[in-house]
Backbone:
C-alpha cells in the first residue's frame, strides 16, 4: 500500500509539473477500480462511464489543490461519489444526456464474486439469490446511503477513509451507515432475508 501511494505521489508531482502523460498513467492505474465503484453505484455501464469520465476530468482540473492529506484513491472516491450524486440530480430535473466517456472502461461485464465456502450447491444457490436481493435493495436506497454502504461493504474502506472521502466526521459516517443498514433491513426482511448476516461479510459485490 505504501509503495502504491508513493507511486501515486510521484505521478501527481509530475502532473503538477506539467507532465500530462503522468496523469494518463494515473488514469490507467486506477480507472478499473473507479469504474467498478461507479458501476456498483449505478448498475448501468453507460452511466458508470459518464461518472468515471467526469470524475477524472474534475481530478485533473483540481489536482494542483491536492495536498496529499489522504490517499489518491480516497480523493478519487470522493470525487466519483460527488459526480454520481450530481448526475442523479440532473437526471431528476431533465432527461438524461449521455456524455462521451473520456477514459477507456474495462471490457466485459462486472462479475460478482461470492465467498467460496459453500457446503453444498443448494447453499451456494441460496447465497447467490440472497446477494442478488441485496443488490436490488441497495439500488432502492437514497443515493447518499447507497454510496456509504458500497464504500464500506464493497470497496472495503475504513470509517476513517470514508470520512476523508466524503468530508464527514467519523461519527456522522457511522450514524449514516447505521441508517443505511436499517433502510436495507426494512427492504429485505419482508423477503425473509437478514441483511446483518449478509453485510457482516463486508463484501456485497466485487
Residues:
Amino acid at each position: 500500500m505504501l509503495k502504491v501511494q508513493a507511486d501515486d505521489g510521484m505521478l501527481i508531482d509530475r502532473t503538477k509539473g506539467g507532465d500530462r502523460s503522468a496523469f494518463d498513467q494515473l488514469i490507467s492505474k486506477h480507472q478499473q477500480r473507479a469504474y467498478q465503484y461507479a458501476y456498483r453505484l449505478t448498475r448501468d455501464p453507460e452511466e458508470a462511464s459518464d461518472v468515471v469520465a467526469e470524475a477524472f476530468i474534475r481530478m485533473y482540473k483540481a489536482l494542483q489543490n491536492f495536498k496529499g492529506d489522504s490517499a489518491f484513491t480516497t480523493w478519487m472516491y470522493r470525487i466519483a461519489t460527488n459526480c454520481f450524486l450530481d448526475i442523479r440530480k440532473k437526471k431528476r430535473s431533465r432527461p438524461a444526456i449521455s456524455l462521451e466517456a473520456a477514459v477507456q472502461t474495462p471490457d466485459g461485464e462486472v462479475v460478482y464474486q461470492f465467498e467460496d465456502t459453500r457446503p453444498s450447491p443448494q447453499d451456494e444457490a441460496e447465497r447467490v439469490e440472497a446477494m442478488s436481493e441485496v443488490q436490488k435493495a441497495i439500488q432502492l436506497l437514497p443515493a447518499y446511503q447507497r454510496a456509504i454502504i458500497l464504500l464500506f461493504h464493497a470497496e472495503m474502506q475504513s470509517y476513517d477513509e470514508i470520512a476523508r472521502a466524503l468530508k464527514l466526521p467519523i461519527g456522522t459516517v457511522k450514524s449514516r451507515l447505521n441508517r443505511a443498514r436499517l433502510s436495507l433491513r426494512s427492504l429485505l426482511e419482508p423477503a425473509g432475508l437478514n441483511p446483518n448476516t449478509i453485510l457482516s461479510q463486508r463484501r456485497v459485490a466485487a
